[in-house]
Amino acid sequence: MKHRIVVLGAGYAGATAAGRLARRLHRDDVEITLVNGDPEFVERVRMHQLASGQELRHRPLREVCAGTGVRVRTARVTAVDVDRKTVDLAGETLGYDTLVYALGSTIADHGVPGVAEYACDVAGKQAALRLRARLNELKPGGTVLVVGGGLTSIEAATEIAEAHPGLKVAIATRAGVGDWLSDKARRHLRGVFDRLGITVHEHADITRVEANGVVTGAAGEIPAQVTVWTAGFTVHPIAAATTLEVSGTGRIVVDRTMRSVSHPDVYAVGDAAIAEGAGGKPLRMSCASAHPMAWLAGDAIAARLTGRKVPETTIGYTIQCISLGRRDGIVQRVTPDDQPTSTVVKGRTAARIKEFICASAAWGASHPTLMLPSRRRHVVASGEVKTHLAGR
């Protein structure tokens, strides 16, 4: 009987993990099912581009996985039972022997009233398309407020301002915009905001979102015809509803091989997992974390199933990339534990680097079995491991 591997979520982490497993394990021994709510692979790091009016390449998952041996199931996950080893979909239940949980994240409203009713976001494709429609409805002089001061907020504000020069764009954050960056990077960021006419409201504690703007604790009201909520992300509540050990924020606690510390047949990757990176710090929710987490999980699963040595690697960072519209950007070099250094690339060169990285990430996730040589090994049987070499 084949070993059943179910991968939940086909974002950067899930698609990469499924492809890694297909490249490592022999098809005669495993059945890999990739479950995703959208029939396409979605470049989440480009949702601000989609919202601003750009068209993105379509990548149907069935085409992405064609010829890999990975079976694609388009469906929404409604529940997971890690004790019975089942996954509930709409009208169907899947059983598994090994589960890879990669359901990602969505916006975090932090309990602020009015976010769900009045704010737009760029957390997914449909949300980005709704925001695009709202922006297209605005007349010249219309007002847009982006709430948040992180990477997503900066990219959304600059992309909208560049694509819609007739609109008045502002950004509001509880702390400082880009305050984790080096001084050199922050100076360039402020210069870009000035060039694009983006108004900055720092230390603005948003207490409520309304139809025509937001209310802050100290500065009163900030008017806006469209409010874009980008003040952080949170995971879906499915994992927290199981007996898996999760953090206070609902992320699955994993070891250095991305394996659940409470259920050894469950692995978690991407935003859904909380894993220790360089310096003992938790890895941040990002594409930069998703890929190495998926590689490590795929290799660990394959190693355990085939009786080989399990790899353990400490994941660290090298750079943070920020797009500031299509022709400007910041590439901030960081330490492995994600602290900024004095090395910064900016302007058009940084924009080209960011575009190359985004394109490479999408290519890697949408060509899951072309990223490394095939070494499809058999699952251990009677104490023996047989190796089948295929492809390059």
TrEMBL record:
Q: Under which EC number(s) is this enzyme classified? A: 1.6.5.-
Is this entry keyworded Oxidoreductase?
A: yes
Q: Which residues form the FAD/NAD(P)-binding domain?
A: 4-282
* Cofactors, names only: FAD
- InterPro entries noted in UniProt: FAD/NAD-bd_sf, FAD/NAD-binding_dom, NADH-Q_oxidoreductase
- Family from the record: Belongs to the NADH dehydrogenase family.
Entry protein name: NAD(P)/FAD-dependent oxidoreductase
Organism, as annotated: Nonomuraea insulae
| Taxonomic lineage | Bacteria, Bacillati, Actinomycetota, Actinomycetes, Streptosporangiales
